[in-house]
Amino acid sequence: MSETKNPPLLSIGPRVRKSPYFDATLRYGATAFTVYNHTFLPASYGDNVRDYWSLVSDVTLWDVACQRQVEISGPDAFEFIQFLTPRDMSKCEVGQCQYMALTNQDGGIVNDAILLRVEEQRFWLSPGDGDVLWWAMGVAVNSGLDVTVREPDVSPLQLQGPKSPLVARDLFGDWAVEMKYYRLRETELDGIPLVVSRTGWSGELGYELYLRDGRFGDQLWERIMEAGKPYDIRPAAPSTIRSIEGGLLSYVSDITIDDNPWVIGMGRFVDFDQPGDFVGKEALRAIAARGANRRLAGIEIDGPALEVPNEEFWDVSAGGKSIGRVTRCAYSPRLEKNIGWANIPEELSAIGTELLVASPSGERRAVVCEAPWFKPQVKIPDELKA
After folding, report:
1. In angstroms, rounded to a whole number, what is the distance separating the alpha carbons of residues 39 and 133?
2. Cα 221 to Cα 216: distance, rounded to the nearest angstrom
3. Which end of the chain, N or C, is surrounded by fewer C-beta atoms within 10 Å?
4. 108-135: string of b/e by CB count within 10 Å (b at 16+)?
5. Backbone angles phi, psi at 124, to 5 degrees
C-alpha cells in the first residue's frame, strides 16, 4: 500500500457557517480551521506558541462567532432558565453573567455555558460545542412555560490578554476598565450595536464583544485591530495551552454527557435548596448521596515536550489496567513541562498518584498534581485604570 503524502481535502459546502469575521481572519493569516457549533473556528495563525505568548503578555483578538447564542425570552424566561440548570440563578441580575451547566434527566452534562441576562426576561446562553439550541427547544416543548427559544443575530469576538483593558478603554471609554468581572453592558461603537462583557475563555484579563448585526463584522474587526496597534495586538485562535493551564474546560473533550458536575469539580454549582425544579434533580440527588466515582484531575506527563496537543483521547493505565483517558494535554512554555487533564477513578486521583499514559510516541509516566497551574486573572490592576 502506498503512503498518502498529503491528507485528503474535506468538502463541506454551505452547511458549515462562515462567521461575519471569516474574511478578516483569512486576511490576517489564519492557516487552519476547525468546525465548532456548525461554524468555522480559526484553529491557528501559523504559530500557536507565538500566539500563546501574545495572549499572556499583550493582547489578542479571537473570532469566536462559533459560540452561537441561544436566546430565551418571554414571560417565563427566568423560570425556564432555572429549569435548565442545577445552579441557583436567582441572584443573577440584569447586566450580569453566570457560568452554568445544563444537565439531562440522568444528571449528565448536556453542555456548559455562560449565561448573559440582557433584560429582565431576555437571556443569552453562550455554549460550548454542541446543539444547545435544539436541546433548549426540546425542553421547552413540554415545559408548559411561555418562552421563545431562538438563535439571534449575535456574533462574539474575544479580546483577551493583560493589555485588553487598555484597548477596551480606547474603544469604549473609562467604563470598560471599571466594569466588574462577569458583568455586561449594551453599547455602540461607531454605530455598531454591541453587548460587551468582562468574560472570556483565556484565563487572562479579557472581554467578549457580542456583535448584534452580522453586517458589521468586517468593520468591527478592523476597528479593534486599529485600536490595538499601540498594544501589539495579534489575531489568534483560542489557546489550548492557556486553557489547560487555567482549568478552562472544553465540552466534548474535558466534559461529556457521561460526566456529572462532581466529576469536573462543579459540584458547588448544584443547589438542591432552591425553590424551583430543574432537569435531573433527583438523579443528581442520588449521585450526591453516593458520591462521584470519577474525577477530572490535573496531571504532569514525563518525556520530551509534546509538539502539539493531543488530537484524540489517550489511554491512562495503572497497575496494568486501563482506568481512564487523557482529555487534553499540551506542553506549557511557561512551566516547561507537559500538562493535561485526565478522567480517572476517584480513588486514583490523589496528588502524587503515578499513572501511565499511552501517547503516540510510546508509554509515558504521569503524576496527578495540583491544578489549575495558573488561576484565572479577574481583577484589572489599578495602574491600568489610571
Report:
1. 14
2. 9
3. N
4. bbbbbbbbbbbeebbbbbbbbbbbbbeb
5. -115, 135
